[in-house]
Structures are given as C-alpha cells and as structure tokens.
Write a structure and sequence with these properties.
single chain; 1656 residues; five-stranded parallel sheet; four-stranded antiparallel sheet; binds flavin-adenine dinucleotide; heme; iron; Cyt_B5-like_heme/steroid-bd
Length: 1656
C-alpha cells in the first residue's frame, strides 16, 4: 500500500514562522497553488493512468495497451491472449502461424493463407481477450503474404518463372494496406486492428518482438521475467537464428524496463508530495533498472560460438525486407517506437526532436496504444522531475539524476552501448547483404559508410537527449571516452592503508569519499580518476620555465582546456572557473613524454636543444620521463634568448603553456568494496599498485637507476617516504563510475565462480566476494580464488581471506613466484597450511588444480559445472592464467590442445569467461621494419591457419589469438581483417580506451608503411589513394564473403567448434535443411546478380578512367592504345558462361521455392555444386586481392625510384598507370575465367544422388517435356562452350570514355540505383526507407549497402572528374591513335634511372642476367616500364604488330629506353629483368601475349609460353590450380598458331603433343574424338577435360581439407596438370645438356633452350 498523507501535511508542512509571516506583505503566497491541491487530492497523473489501466485492462483484453505496476508495458501473462485466440474460431490463424517457417521454406505459405476460410474479427467471433494475439497473428500473416507476393517465392536469380496468383477474393476494397491480400485474412485484420485502436492495419515492432513471445518459466522473475534465456518466440516467420535472437533481444530490452513505469510514477508522486528521501529511493531504483537494460545486448551476439544468441549479420536481408510496411501511409515498424525510450525521453524532458531519429520517434509515439500515450503524456506534462531535482539543490538527488542521464543516454549507458552494438552488426550486415537500414544510412550525400552514417545519426539523437543538461555538445560521444568527460563527480582521498606486510606499500588500499555524490556502484564496476601531478613534478616544470611566482596567474586557454574548465564548472555546479598556471601543471599531462610533447618542445626551442634531439631519437615511445625532466635537461643546453622567447613570460597570458601541456586523461581502477545494505555508498575502496619505472638514461645519466612512480598510481599511492601525502590540498579529484559489460557476477547465486588474480588483480574480486557472501545461503555456488603473488609479504587481504576460508565460504589457492614458504588450502581443516615448496607461477597452480578448473570451464551441456571464470591482472598474468587453464583442460578432459581450445572458446562465447586486464600500455619500439599495405592485406586469416592482422593509427597488430576472446564478438574483428580500421576504432571509442590500448601493445607487429612521398605529385598521390581504396574493397569483399562462404563450406574453425551445419536438419532428420540451401541460393544469387558489383562496378570504372586519362594525357595530345578493361568485364558478365552459371543457380532457387519441383532429386548435386562454386568464389576473390596487392607494391617501387632521383613525375605517373591498367585487365580476365569455370559446374549429377536412377529418370523426363533433351545430351558430354580470348582487347581513350559515360548515364537514369536521386534525408521517413528495402528484387537490393555506397561515391567522382577535365578530355579524345611503341618512345628520353630501388616483388630475379647489356641491375621503374610495355604491346593483335616493329631496333646491346623493342635477338639484361619482373608480378599467363618478331618458331614459342604459364609456384598471380592456366594456354596457342600460319592438322598435332600427360591420359577415355583437322573442337575438348580434372581435384582437395594455405594455394598438387617447362621437349631435346641453373633460368624467363633468346 502506498503511503497517503493529508493534503495539509503535504502542502502546508513548511508553513513559515509567525516572525516570517509578520514581514510578509502578500499573505496569499502562503496558500498552496490550486493545481497542486488538485493534484495531491487526485494523485499523481502517471499513477492514475496506471491504476485505470490495471482496473479495466483484464476486462477489456488490454485493448488500450498493457500497463501495470508489476509488469510495466509488458503483458502480465504472455500466454493469455494466444490461449484465448486458440479457444476461438481465430485458432486457424494461430495454427497457420505455428506452421509458418515450414510453409515459407516450402514456398507454400501463400497457398496456405489463401486456403483459409474467412473468419471475421468481430466481437462475437473473436473475444476481447484474444484481440492482441489476433492482431499479431494476422499482422504476421499479411506481411509474409505481401513479402512472398513481391518476391514470388524467389529471392535470387530466376529464369522467368510464372507468377503464382490464387483464385480467391482479395481485401482490395478495405484499404490501401490490404490490396492484394486474400480477404480471408485481410477482413479480420482490418476488423481487429480497428478494435485495438489502429486507424489502418499495420504491424508494429512490439507486435513482432515483445508480444510475440512465450515465457518458459513465469515464476522465474529475477530480476525480470522477460529475460532472453526465459523466452522463446511464439511465431517465428522464417525460423532463422537472426530473427529469433534479434526479436528476443528486442523483447528483453523492453522487458528489462518492466519496473520502470512504476518507478517513474513513484518519482512523480514524490515530487508532488515534495518527498526528497522517497524521490531519492525511486531515482536510485530507476537508475538500477536503466543500468540493467544494456544487458539485453549480450543476447544478440555476432560470435558464431554463442549458440542461440548468434546473429549472423548476413541473415538480416530477408528479415529486413519482411518488416517493410504494408503501405506508404503506415507507421514504420521500428525500435524507435519502444515505449521505454519514449517514456524516458518524456521523463528527462527532452526538448529537441530535430534529428531524423528524433522526428521518427515522435511520429511513432502518436501510434502507440492509448494507455501508453496517456502515461507518457502524464509524465511529460506534469511535475518535471529534473526541474524539482535542480531546485532542491540536494547533491545526492543531482548526483543520482546525473547517473540516470548517463545510464540512459550517456556514452557508456544504454544509448551509447546500443550505438556501438548497432555499429558492429550493421558493419557486418552492410558488407554482406543488407541494403538499407533505419536512418537513411545510405544517404547519397554522405561520405560516411552506411554504418558510420547510422552511427552519426545515433550520435545526433544522443546529443539531443543530453542537451537539456549539457547544452550544445560539439564533439561526438565516442570522443568523450577516455577523457575527463567520464569523471562527472568530485571526491577526495580519505585514507591509504597497508593491505599486506610490504613496508614499501607497493600495493595500498585507497579509500575515497563518496559522501553527497549520489554515486552508486555494483561489484565489478570501475572508478575513473583524473590524477593530479605530484608537487615534485610541478616544481621541476615551474623551476625550468620560471613559473614559480606565477602559479596563481590566470591563463588564456585553448579549446580543449576551455572544455575542461566548463566541465569543472558543471561538476561543481558553478560557472566555468578561471584556470591558473597551477591548474595546468596539476591537471595537465606531464609524464610520460609522448612524441607530440617532445616535438612541441623541439619546435618551441627552434630545434636548438641537443637533449630534445636525443629524446626524439629514442627507439621507443613514450619516453620514460616527464616534461619536467626534459625541460630541466634542455634548459642547460639551450641559448637563453631562445629559451626566453619560447617560454615568454613578458606578455602575461601564458597561452603557450596551455598549448604545450594537454589535459591529462583519467586512469581506471577496479572498485574493491561492496555493501548491499547502503542505499548510497559513502566510500569507495581501491586497491592501488604503484606503477614504478626507471627513468630513461638521458635524464638519469648512463648507468644510474632512478625509480619513478606512474602519474595515477603515484598520486593515489605515493612512495611512503616522498612526503607527497603530507601536503594539504583542496583540489577536487574528479571521478566517475563505469560498468564493464563483460565483467559482472552471474545473476544466479547458485552459479559457481572462480577468480584468477595476479597481484593487485585481486582488486575487483574483493567487491565480488563481499557481494556474494552478503547473500549466502545453503544453495550458494562455490567461490574459488587462485591468487599469484611474489612473496608472502605481498599476499594482500590475507586476514580477510583467512576469515572466509575458516568460515568455509571460500577456497583459496596460492602461488608465490619468489618465495618457498608456500601456503596450501586444506578443505577439511578450513585453513591455509604452511608448506615448503619451490616458487611457482599461477599457471603451475592452475595445472595442479586441473580437475576443479576444467570442471568449472566446461559448460553444463559438456557435463561440466558451467562455472563463471574471472581473470584479473596484467597482461602477463592473463597469459599465464590462460596457459594454465588450457593445460588443465588438456590434462583433465580433452584429447588434444585443439579440443581444449574449443572448450575454452565456448566458455568465452557463453560469456562465462570474463577478463579485466588492467595494465598500462607498454612503450612500443619504433625501429622495426615497416609493413606495406599489401602485406597487411594478405593477412586476412580467412583460411584456417592464417594470421589475421589489422592496422590502427599507423601500427599493425596480429589479432589472431585475441579473436575468440573479443567481447564484441569474433566477426567484427574478422570483418576488419587486412585493412586499416582506425576509423572503426575511433567510432567504437577503442582509441582512448586504456584496456584496448594495453591489449594492443601485446599484439603489436610493427608500424604500417606510410603513404609514400611522391615529391608533390598530386597525380600519383590521388592514384595511390584510389588504388588503396580499391585494394581495401578487394580485401573487404573477400573477408565479408568469408562469413557466408565458410559457413556454407563448414570449414570455419569457429563453426566447427560450435558444430553449426547449415545443411543438415537440427532434429536429426536425414533430409537436407532447406535453410542451408536458401542461404547458399541467396549468397550465390547476390554474387551473380550484382556481378561482384563492388569489384567490377563503378569503382573499377573510376580507376580505368583516371588511369587511362593519365596515360593518354602523358602522350601530350596523341592517343594511346589501352587495354580494354571495361570491355572485358562487360563481355564476361554477358557471356554464355555467365548465363549458364545463372541458369544453374536458378535451379537451386527452384528447389528453395518449390520443393515439389523435379529439382528435389538433386539434393546431393546441390550440395556438391554449392561446395565447388563457393570455393571458386573465394579463390576468385583471393586472386583479385592478390592482383590489387601487386598494384599497391608498384607505388612503393615508383616512390623508391623517385627518391633515387629517377625520371620526371609525369613519366612516373604514366608508367605506373600503364602498369596498373595491365593489372586491371588481368583482373577483368579473371572474371571471365571465373564464369567459365562456374558454368562448368552442374547441379544435376545423378551419380551422386541416393537414388541415381530416379534422379536420372526425372531429369530425362523433364528435359523431354521441355524439349531440351537432345541439347542436354550434348551438354552432358561436353559441358558449356569454351571461352575464347577476344582479339579486340585493346582500345583507345575514346572507347574508355564512351563506356564510362554510358555507365554514368544508365546509372543516373535508373530510379533506384545508385541513389543519386535518393530522397532527401531531411524529409524522408522511416516508412519510405523501409519500403525501399522491402521492394521486390532490384539491382540495388542485390547490392550490399557497402558496395552501393562505394559505387555511388565512384559515380560521383567520375562525374566530377569528367567535369573538371572537360577541356583536356576533349583534346585527348579527338586525336588519332598512337601505338604503344610510340607512347614508349615518348617516355624514352626521360626515363633513365640512376639508382636501383628494389621493388618488393622483383628481388629474386634481379641479378641473373649475363650476356647482354652489362651488369647494371634494372631499377624498379625500368622493370615496371618494361612490364607495362610488354603487356600492352602484347595486347595488340599480333598481325598488326608485325608491321609496326622497326627493324633497326634489332640487336642493340643497350637500349637507352626500356621501351625499345625487347624482342630482338640481342635482348638486353634490363629487358630480361623486365620480363622476369613482369613474370614475378604475375603477368605470366594472362596479361602478356607472345611477342611478335617474325619468323616465329612455333615450337619454341609454345615452349616459352608454357614456361610462362607455369609460374604458379613463383607467382601468386596465376590462378590457383594449374589447370586454371589451361584456358589461357589454349588462347595463347591459338594466337601463336594463327601467327605461324600453321595448317589445321599441324595445329592439332602440335596441340596434342604439347598437352600434359594427365590430359593425354584422360583423352584415352574419350571415344567421340573430333576430326584430325578440327582444331576448334580439339581445343574445346581439351578445355573441358582440363576443367573437369581440375574440378575433381579441387573437390578432392576440399574433401581432404588439403587446401589450408590462406592465400589459397597450398603446395602443388602432384596430380595437377604439368604443362611444366621441365617436361617440355624442344625439337632437339634442347636443355638436356645444360647446367641445371642455366636451364632453370631459361625456363623461368621463357628463353629458348637452344639459343637462349626469347624467340629464336
Ligand atoms: C580496466 C582497468 C582496471 C584497472 N584496475 C586497476 C586496479 O584495480 N589497481 C591498479 O593498481 N591498477 C589498475 N589498473 C591500471 C591503472 O589504470 C593504471 O594503468 C596504472 O595505475 C598505471 O597508471 P599510472 O598513471 O600510474 O602510470 P603512467 O603514468 O600512465 O605510466 C606508467 C608506465 O606506462 C607507460 N605509459 C604510460 N602511458 C603510455 C602510453 N600511452 N603508451 C605507452 N606507454 C605508456 C609509461 O612509460 C610508464 O612506464 C587498471 C587498468 C585498467 C585498464
């Protein structure tokens, strides 16, 4: 019962004394205001709304909306309404809903809906009690009907299936929303919607999530009923993991606010009753509720190991489309409509709703159920709680309210956590398949990537919420992390106590005052403290700068100090204070010396101090010393006039001091106490270990050892003899509390816990056990502590722990690393018994206790105890503990280390293994070799066994070992593998996070090679940026496809651990899981439909355009011949192979959408097809990345050349452009090859099926019926048509321009892609965004959001480029064509290069040339020039080339230009180098055509060609399998044959001779051979045999799991085709007598084995 007081007691309790009354003129002011009287008489409005709702809700089926004291906005009984529906005729709807995932999977849901009888939704048929369930069931049915109707059951590639339409009456006449939906569900939906107060029928977010749940155990109420683990979805639509986990997560968010409405109503009552203590109680309660809300985010996990919490990002696509609104008029289904958010906004008095999300929230609020709207209005319009708190001036109320604001909308609160969570999930979803999301993330005018844009919008709405309290905020919330902004309270140090018997007090318990702060905390929470510099350090700086007399002098502040001053004012509830010299010195960063700080001093002293220079030359940063040390040393070696000018005291504003010294950042300490009985804790204990380091020798003097204390720990726990604590100070210590999401006690007290601590790592565990033992009962779980310390003297909290051991509540196991006086836990005696033993570390202790530890780690399902394990201490402790645990599991219960690792990973994924690694970042060495971007890109770790690197702010880290432990899930790191993810780090507030910074130092590999210096060449610089962005795209495409691909292949190690197999049914049914087929169908369709849009779309066009322009421009007005990159791509995408591949995948679509189709007899064929095609996809993407890496390396080579004083910039750019264009051409050709290979894979493989005869018969029957039987028989033998290399692969600049312009035109004309005409984000609504997302398949929808965003940007860039270079383009596009030789000649004069830089990929071939041109090694530029020349020259039709080669160039011993004819008899060393360079850069096989010099000896040329084609071992540029080179070989053979004017019979004979043994062997089995002169047929036949053999090889490899090389290669397959040069025999068995090295050199370089010329 709520306490009720009389009106007089409340309103007239503070009547003034007679004396005060006597002084008053207006006595009327003593009477209470009428609205106060009325309110007190009637009660608080929010409470009244609640009481009314509770009174009539049960009678009316809660049709006004759920609202009650105990259950808040949740239904009191989640099953009541569905049960009522099941008891009414409406049961047919709920029955169908139960069958929904199955029907959808079979493609039968529309048929099932249309077959329903019409049951009306009127009161006489559907009782009020069943109303909500009816609204939910019918809403889901209507939406799924609409969804299926739009996609016609197909969500991917189709081959023109006819649309299915039921012959039933539709609900078209009812309203716009129900057009095209069968009347049998449309009419009742219309009726029940109106009864529930919805003017038009629509599905809301809480219909789908909150109200569509079943509670497993209604009695399990702690701390709220609707927990993730206590719920299951009632009516899932697709039954996919994403849907289930996401919906349950959303439902939990709402349910965790279960008691929020009551707390809010109570707050309002107390405000009305002016009850400060009551309000304080309720505010604290509300704060606790809000602090619990982010827990729901754990339930949505992107870690594949996380069981039912796992949300695969790529599965968003379908669910996202399904939730599209029924019409343009509907309110969108969005989490913005969740009542807890809307009511909290009202409670905190949010005034601004200008952001997109703000506007939508307000719009959706108007569509909430009536009770909820009334409640929110009651909170918003009456008795503002924040205002009352402010007026009260009570610091406790203000502190708690501040805590509420932080908990709800702060950076570490619900909104901040939500923002980070969404960022991670959206990043993955955008990279895989999701096309749109709330908040117009793909807004066309935004430069940010989709998830970054959403992140920004969340930030906008967070700032709007904070605005009433913090005013206008000019930084992003993530920029507040790790800064003073986290410390919003004032405190002071009360005491420092000894906690062990170490007289040095290296660890101390520091107690701080929390009185009147309003701070509350939980076990595991942390305190952030802004440290104050020691007086000794302040004195050093002040003395050096002559500031001792100016300590109280005010200072002109820069922006960040101004922000700090404002913050200080806010915390003190005053105006921003005027900061003085002392403030800057006390609160600024003085130590350690960062590079920035040293550089500033260096600049100020005009580089005159040798000490500073010495410091700058340090091999590691930061330097162990302070600004004071630096200045003290520098003052001695700097000229006084420079010093005085730098640190000028004469002007009196000292602005330079604020510029020099940045604001210090807070330190984090685990809270070491907990008292459940205190409403507001009065003190907080910290266990502080003093960080000590040796002052660097520059300051200490060589050989001297000066021990210093860290800033934070030295302030809190100074050296006992330093005298620091004796100095009185009135400085406020700024503090703040933060809650690590991943370091909390389990909810259930019965769960056993193990704590692993090293040294002061015991800190948080003290709060844990104080909390656990306060509520101990007989059913409490075990508490086991493993503690490692140096010696008995350093055993902290010994007395306290012995007390627990004696009481039998805790087991304590100890390891002393430098002490033989051991202590052993004796369970029976309940004591720690003395025992001599060798010193040991904590890992040895853990291994000793292996049984206990292993049982605790194993999950209950694995038969273990499913305990919660916590590790706390430095990174070294963490390593030691993890090693110990691994060994313990291995010794106790696993057969191998891998299994032990999996058991451990499982515990991490189940969030039972939590870390609190606290340490200071280690200084990083800066003298290690740099890591090129290409090397980073190659380490994506997507293949088992590979390493996974990331780059952050100029450094590269190897995250492989950390991935399974990442609290944010594995996938988010994996999706950033191989790229620079600094922006993500900034956005996720990792950059300033001390924990992250500490951990990163552990995984440091080296510095990233910075962007090369192009000596001011804008052209090269922008070319670099463009290529780097393209390389990034190749890497991101590869790693994002990895998520799905390896899920499909089932080869991801993490998936293996979890045993997820998308292909088989979970319940052990033998048949294929349609869900898996669907995943594959969607995946492969997207890949084909969008034609690798990110790689071959506008981004590629932009590169081609700009590189072609550069090349054409370099000819100074004469047109160049360019590789036809865009033409090759276009042809590849439309070639018969591409069509055949699409046809095959559409067959899988048929299987997905119509299980009754004949495709059902191809189950195993589909599996086989999926395995092989997915492997092909990945290989293709790997090849693309590899090509891009080579391009990237070329930039370094060029830069090295420039640095070496090479040719002029213009030529560098042109040469590079030529080279890059060749690479792009090869990429384009890889697409051709990919389609050719894919086209050869077939779904129909009767021999694989369980019942081959039936499969065959069905195949034949279908084909006979559709008339394709005879065609098929041919196909079955020969497969698809062989790919022939086109001859017109060379174009001029005009042609490139035409293609680009055509692409721009077509994209701008298209309505939906690339959204150049997308709606203005300022006026767009969520509804329109969702409608776009839910539109039937279009090109846009098959393109993931990231690719679409990138392509949009590229289109805009191209358009701008064309505009900006209009004149030059006009000039270039009209001139007559120029041959590449001419182009080369243009460069000739200026390309002499002096010094020999070494390009990364050409070193091995650098010095193996002998007979021509002298010993000078070729420079990288020369090699590149040559490679480009060869490639481009070779790309021209051969007959044409024959006429253009100048005879006079033959036989030159040393060419002045590497572009001279290198096919002459006397090919010089540089050419040979250049050739080998082009080989090693992968030109072999694809880019290079055989050079032309007549007369050609076909045999020698073929031998040379073959050797070129067999570079797989040396060059990763070749396709993976050796067979993959075969199409190229054939193409080249054709060209050569043509040039040699061979007759057809000779050609065939030669071909048959030259193919490898396995091919010849395979030929034996071919009965139906082509005629001896039918060269075309023979090539076709060999291609097919080659492809078949390769496919078989790769399948075998797949089956054997042999391919475990991350770059896709693995060792050479011994069975693979050997078009191996070693086996090639020339007509005279040349090479037989050659020395081995020479033979190898000739083979490597494609030189004749007889005469050592390229073409003899
Ligand atoms: C989550 C968490 C919980 C923690 N809990 C506790 C606890 O309960 N008890 C406890 O004693 N400690 C705890 N710590 C550690 C604590 O936060 C401090 O890191 C520690 O006290 C040292 O800080 P300092 O100011 O004394 O040292 P600093 O003055 O920061 O310097 C100490 C050393 O670190 C180096 N260093 C400093 N900054 C950098 C940098 N940016 N890059 C490279 N090197 C750098 C310095 O050269 C020096 O050697 C915790 C840390 C974290 C992250």
């Amino acid at each position: 019962m709520r306490e009720r007081k009389s009106i007089n007691e409340i309103l007239y309790a503070t009547m003034p004394t007679p004396k005060e009354i006597r002084g008053l003129k207006n006595i009327d002011s003593l009477t209470a205001a009428e609205h106060d009287l009325l309110a007190v008489a009637l009660g608080a409005p929010a409470r009244q709304v609640m009481l009314r709702a509770e009174e009539i809700g049960p009678r009316t089926g809660w049709k006004d909306g759920y609202l009650s004291v105990e259950h808040g906005f949740c239904p009191p009984d989640y099953s009541e309404s569905p049960a009522a529906l099941a008891n009414s005729p409406g049961r047919i709807w709920s029955d169908l809903c139960e069958r929904m995932p199955g029907c959808v999977a079979r493609g039968k849901i529309r048929e099932s809906i249309a077959a329903l009888p019409l049951i009306e939704g009127t009161e006489d048929v559907i009782p009020d009690q069943a109303l909500w369930a009816a609204v939910v069931a019918l809403g889901m049915l209507c939406s799924i009907y609409r969804y299926e109707d739009k996609n016609d059951g197909h969500e991917g590639v189709t081959t023109g299936t006819t649309r299915w339409k039921p012959n039933v009456e539709m609900g078209d006449d009812l309203c716009e929303e129900l057009i095209g939906i069968p009347r049998c569900i449309a009419l009742p939906y219309w009726q029940v919607s109106r009864r529930i107060g919805r003017a038009i029928p629509h599905l809301t977010f809480f219909d789908q999530a909150s109200l569509n749940m079943k509670i497993k155990d209604p009695n399990s109420k702690y701390p709220y009923v609707g927990r993730f683990d206590n719920m299951e979805m009632r009516w899932p639509v697709f039954g996919e993991r994403t849907e289930m986990a996401f919906q349950k997560g959303c439902a939990e968010t709402s349910a965790s606010f279960q008691h929020g409405p009551d707390a809010i109503a109570a707050c309002q009552e107390h405000v009305m009753n002016r009850n400060v203590e009551g309000l304080l109680r309720e505010l604290i309660r509300l704060k606790e509720i809000l602090e619990r809300m982010p827990n729901a985010f754990h339930s949505i996990n992107t870690n594949p190991n996380s069981g039912e919490n796992y949300v695969p990002g790529h599965q968003w696509i379908r669910w996202g489309k399904f939730s599209a609104p029924l019409s343009r008029r509907c309110p969108a289904s969005s989490g913005l409509q969740f009542p807890p958010f809307l009511v909290m906004d009202a409670f905190l008095g949010r005034r601004k709703y200008d952001s997109f999300l703000g506007r939508e929230g307000l719009h959706l609020r108007a569509w909430l159920p009536s009770n909820l709207r009334a409640f929110i209005a009651a909170v918003e319009y009456h008795y503002s709680i924040p205002e009352f708190v402010k007026q009260s001036g009570d610091p406790r109320l203000m502190g708690v309210l501040d805590g509420i604001i932080e908990a709800y909308t702060g950076e570490r609160g619900f909104m901040g956590t939500h923002r980070y969570k969404v960022f991670g999930i959206l990043e993955i979803a955008s990279k895989t398949g999701r096309t749109e999301t709330n908040g117009l993330s793909g807004a066309p005018d935004s430069n940010a990537r989709p998830w970054e844009e959403t992140h920004r919008q969340f930030s906008e709405s967070m700032k709007e919420r904070l605005e009433p309290f913090r005013g206008t905020i000019d930084i992003e919330p993530n920029e507040m992390r790790g800064t003073f902004a986290e410390c919003r309270y004032r405190s002071r140090i009360l005491s420092r106590s000894f906690v062990d018997s170490d007289p040095n007090r290296s660890v101390a318990m520091v107690t701080m005052d929390l009185h009147n702060t309003g701070i509350t905390f939980q076990p595991g929470d942390r305190l952030a403290i802004m440290p104050l510099n020691s007086w000794a350090e302040i004195a050093k700086v002040a003395a050096a700068l002559g500031l001792a007399e100016y300590l109280d002098h005010p200072i002109t502040l820069n922006k960040s100090w101004q922000r700090f001053a404002r913050h200080l004012g806010e915390v003190r509830h005053t105006e921003a204070p005027q900061l003085t010299v002392k403030d800057i010195l006390r609160r600024g960063h003085l130590a350690p010396i960062t590079k920035d700080l040293a550089l500033k001093v260096h600049d100020m002293l005009r580089a005159s101090s040798t000490t500073v220079l010495q410091v700058l030359a340090t091999p590691e940063w930061p330097v162990r010393g302070s600004l004071g040390d630096l200045l003290q040393a520098a003052v001695a070696d700097t000229a006084p006039h420079i010093w005085d000018k730098a640190f000028d005291l004469s002007t009196g504003d000292f602005a330079w001091l604020a510029e020099l010294i940045p604001v210090e950042v807070p330190r984090t300490y685990s809270i070491s106490n907990y008292n459940a009985d205190e409403l507001l804790p009065s003190t907080v204990d910290l266990t502080i270990s003093r960080a000590e380091y040796n002052l660097c020798s520059t300051f200490a003097g060589e050989g001297n050892k000066v021990v210093c204390a860290g800033v934070g720990s030295g302030f809190l726990n100074p050296f006992p003899n330093s005298g620091e604590e004796l100095i009185e100070t009135d400085d406020d210590v700024l503090i703040g509390v933060s809650r690590p999401l991943n370091f909390q006690l389990p909810i259930e007290r019965a769960a056993p816990c193990a704590y692993f601590a090293g040294g002061s790592g015991i800190a948080p565990f003290r709060s844990f056990w104080q909390a656990r033992f306060a509520s101990r009962s007989s059913s409490s779980g075990r508490d086991v502590l493993f503690l490692g310390v140096q010696s008995r003297e350093k055993f902290c909290y010994e007395e306290e722990l012995r007390g627990y051991v004696e009481a039998g509540v805790m087991e304590v196991h100890l390891a002393f690393s430098r002490d033989e006086r051991g202590l052993v836990y004796d369970r029976r005696m309940r004591d720690l018994v003395e025992k001599e033993m060798p010193p040991r570390y904590i890992d040895a202790l853990i291994v000793e206790q292996a049984g206990v530890v292993a049982e605790l780690v194993m999950s209950k399902k694995q038969g273990g105890l499913g305990g919660y394990l916590y590790v706390c201490g430095s990174v070294a402790v963490f390593d030691s503990v993890m090693n110990g645990i691994r060994k313990a599991i291995y010794n106790h219960c696993s057969s191998s280390m891998e299994v032990a690792e999996q058991i451990l990973n499982k515990a991490f994924a189940e969030r039972r293994f939590m870390l609190d690694v606290f340490m200071t970042p280690k200084p990083l060495p800066c003298n290690v070799p740099t890591i090129p971007l290409s090397q980073l890109a190659r380490n994506t770790g997507h293949r088992p066994g590979g390493r996974m690197w990331i780059a952050v702010h100029g450094n590269v880290y190897d995250m492989t070992d950390f991935v399974p432990m990442h609290p944010g899930g594995t996938i988010i790191i994996q999706s950033n593998a191989g790229v620079d993810c600094s922006k993500t780090f900034d956005n996720l507030a990792h950059t300033n996070n001390p924990e992250v910074a500490s951990l990163l130092t552990k995984y440091y590999v080296g510095p990233l090679t910075p962007k090369p210096d192009f000596h001011g060449s804008q052209e090269l610089s922008s070319m670099y940026d463009l290529w780097a962005a393209y390389l990034r795209t190749t890497v991101e495409t590869l790693v994002s496809h990895r998520f799905e691909a390896f899920e499909l292949l089932g080869t991801s190690t993490s998936l293996e651990a979890n045993g997820v197999d998308v292909w088989s049914r979970s319940e052990g049914t033998p048949s294929l899981n349609i869900g898996g087929v669907r995943i594959f169908y969607d995946y492969q369709s997207r890949l084909l439909q969008s034609g690798f849009t990110a790689l071959f779309g506008p981004k590629l066009q932009e590169l081609v355009l700009k590189l072609s322009f550069c090349l054409a421009d370099a000819t100074a007005g004469v047109d160049a011949r360019l590789p036809d990159v865009l033409g090759v791509v276009a042809r590849a995408q439309m070639c018969p192979d591409a069509v055949a591949a699409q046809h095959e995948i559409s067959l899988v679509g048929e299987f997905v959408c119509d299980r009754s189709s004949h495709v059902r007899f191809a189950e195993r064929g589909i599996l086989n097809y999926a395995a092989r095609s997915v492997e092909l996809d990945i290989e293709m993407l790997e090849d693309m990345r590899e090509e891009a890496c080579h391009g990237m390396d070329a930039f370094d080579a060029i830069a090295a050349d420039m640095a070496a004083g090479g040719a002029g910039q213009k030529n560098h750019a042109a040469v590079l452009a030529a080279f890059l264009l060749q690479i792009l051409e090869r990429m384009a050709k890889r697409l051709e090859i990919f389609y050719a290979k894919l086209a050869r894979l077939k779904v129909y493989q009767p021999e694989l099926e369980v019942n081959p005869a039936r499969a065959r018969w069905n195949l034949v029957r279908t084909k006979v019926r559709d008339g394709s039987f005879f065609l098929l028989t041919q196909e079955a033998v020969l497969g698809a048509e062989a790919r022939r290399r086109g001859k017109g692969d060379v174009v001029d600049f005009d042609s490139v321009l035409n293609r680009v312009q055509a692409s721009l035109r077509s994209n701008t004309n298209r309505a939906n892609i690339p959204k150049l005409t997308a709606p203005d984000p300022a006026t767009a609504t969520l509804n329109s965004v969702h409608l776009t997302r839910g539109a039937p398949d279009s090109e846009q929808l098959s393109t993931n959001a990231l690719a679409a965003h990138g392509n949009n940007a590229a289109l805009r860039a191209m358009s701008n480029f064309l505009d900006a270079n209009r004149r030059a383009i006009r000039r270039l596009s009209k001139v007559p064509p120029l041959t590449f030789e001419q182009l080369a000649a243009q460069f000739e004069g200026s390309t002499t290069v002096q010094r020999p830089p070494t390009p990364p990929s050409s070193t091995s071939d650098a010095d193996s040339v002998s007979n021509t041109g002298g010993p000078r090694a070729a420079t990288s530029l020369e090699k590149m020039l040559a490679a480009a020349a060869m490639n481009t020259t070779g790309a021209r039709p051969l007959n044409m080339r024959r006429n253009t080669v100048a005879a006079g160039t033959r036989g030159r011993s040393r060419s002045p230009s590497v572009f001279s004819n290198h096919h002459t008899a006397g090919m010089n060393a540089n050419h040979a180098h250049a050739h080998s360079m082009s080989m090693s850069m992968g030109a072999g096989g694809l880019g290079i055509r055989s050079p032309p010099t007549p007369p050609l000896d076909a045999t020698a040329a073929v031998a040379a060609l073959m050797s070129k084609l067999n570079r797989a071992g040396e060059s990763t540029m070749l396709p993976k399998g050796n067979w993959a080179a075969f199409p190229e070989f054939i193409a080249e053979f054709c060209n050569l044959a043509e040039n040699c004017s061979m007759d057809a019979v000779t050609k065939v004979r030669l071909l048959r001779e030259k193919v490898s043994k396995p091919l010849r062997t395979a030929l034996i089995n071919v009965i139906d051979r082509p005629a001896a002169n039918d060269f075309a047929k023979w090539t076709e036949l060999f291609s097919k045999i080659a492809t078949n053999i390769e496919s078989d090889n790769s399948v075998n490899k797949l089956a054997r799991g042999a391919n475990n090389n991350q770059n896709g290669g693995g060792g050479r397959d011994p069975d693979a085709m050997v078009i191996d040069a070693v086996r090639v025999k020339g007509p005279n068995s040349a090479g037989k007598h050659l020395p081995h090295e020479d033979l190898e050199y000739r083979l490597k370089n494609g030189l004749c084995l007889n005469c050592k010329q390229m073409y003899c």
